[in-house]
Specification:
Helix content is 45%, strand content 17%. By secondary structure, it is α/β, with parallel strands linked by helices. It has an 8-stranded parallel β-barrel with strand order 1-2-3-4-5-6-7-9, surrounded by 8 helices. Helix 1 crosses helix 2, helix 2 packs parallel to helix 3 (75-88) and helix 3 packs across helix 5 (118-133). The longest helix has 17 residues, at 187-203.
């Protein structure tokens, strides 16, 4: 099982220097992947620009979006942008995709909230694959092939940020695997999501096996618990306050480094291909200490 690290872009105060330091530290460390997610009406740097910068600043790690809100954007333009990032990174890009859950993000950029649908997500993923194959998809343009083509043959791997039965069933038809996230960090939830995806994959008649990723917020020791709660109080501002107040004390993983190491071992036993850790602090020293303890 591979372990990846998220850049905590959902914390405020980022500069070019701190962004590059995080990207290079992850790339130079033992981490298998560098991840980041997308929000619009929040403090985080813009997702696509940040992903491209990290592609240029790194040489080794896989770049994973967790997740790109695919239904909020034009899929042909997205395909061209992601193909460009795949070229910049020389084939290190993997796409986690989803519909997102924040209406204000859609409306703030003029996107149609009516596109917040599983069927639209599947349609857009299929359009991107056609673009990456070099199909003639843009009509009635004189030049019908949208380039550059990705370095990866057929384009980057697509993983679905799917949760419910309908989204998992659809994802098994169009995606290469699951980009899972456990808000309450429950082994039972992770096991169930993996089992449901495997079953949907078999029902869809897919060959081979899907890639299964679990991810979650974490905080180490009591100080980490406090920083994680501060982070989540800010991050969950899109939820009704009463719901956010109920979730914050229970969300994420808290414990010692050894507790985290043991928990990762249990996730590995569930058949996870990857775990992506999501820090809740911009203290880069924390991931260096974690790397020394986990490896």
């Amino acid at each position: 099982m591979q372990i990846g690290m998220t850049i905590p872009f959902m914390e405020p105060g980022w500069t070019r220097r701190s962004m590059r330091q995080w990207a290079e530290t992850i790339d130079n460390g033992p981490w298998a992947s560098l991840a980041m997610g997308e929000r619009i009406t929040f403090v985080n740097p813009e997702f696509m620009t940040s992903l491209a910068a990290c592609a240029a600043w790194t040489e080794r790690v896989e770049l994973i979006s967790t997740v790109s809100v695919l239904t909020m954007h034009n899929p042909v333009l997205l395909a061209k942008q992601f193909a460009t990032i795949d070229v910049i990174s020389h084939g290190r890009l993997t796409l986690g995709v989803g519909t997102g859950g924040r209406r204000e993000d859609y409306e703030s950029i003029g996107a149609d909230w009516g596109n917040h649908r599983i069927a639209k997500l599947q349609e857009n993923a299929q359009i991107m694959r056609r673009v990456w194959r070099g199909d003639e998809t843009v009509l009635p343009s004189a030049l019908r092939i949208v380039e550059p083509l990705p370095v990866q043959d057929g384009g980057p791997q697509i993983l679905a940020g799917a949760i419910g039965p309908k989204s998992i069933a659809a994802a098994a038809r169009y995606a290469d695997g699951l980009s899972g996230f456990s808000m309450l960090v429950s082994l039972d939830d992770i096991r169930q999501s993996f089992d449901n995806f495997r079953a949907a994959w078999a029902d869809a008649g897919r060959a081979g096996k899907p890639r299964l990723i679990a991810s979650f917020w974490y905080g180490i020791e009591q100080q980490g618990k406090q920083q994680m709660m501060r982070h989540l109080e800010r991050y969950m501002n899109f939820m009704p306050p009463a719901i956010a107040q109920q979730l914050v004390p229970h969300a994420g993983f808290n414990g010692s480094v050894q507790d985290l190491k043991d928990f990762l071992g249990e996730i590995k036993n569930l058949g996870a291909d990857d775990v992506i850790l999501v820090p809740t602090s911009t203290d880069i020293g924390e991931i260096a200490q974690l790397a020394n303890a986990l490896y």
